[in-house]
Amino acid sequence: MYHCLGELGLFNDATHVELIEGELFSMSPTGAFHAGYVKRLNYLLMIN
Prior knowledge:
GO terms for molecular function: endonuclease activity. The chain is of the alpha+beta class. It has one domain. It contains 2 helices and 2 strands. It has helices at 2-7, 32-47, and strands at 17-20, 23-26. Strands 1-2 form a two-stranded antiparallel sheet. A hairpin with a 2-residue loop joins strand 1 and strand 2. The longest helix is centred in the C-terminal third of the chain and has 16 residues, at 32-47.
């Protein structure tokens, strides 16, 4: 159902939603600070 809503055009690139246990939640966009930490964590996990 979630994918069907996207195909109908309900969500666009600027829409930040997350499907958690069958419920849709509006999410705030990822900021540069958060993105930097995620990138660093991914790097650390890949080298070990």
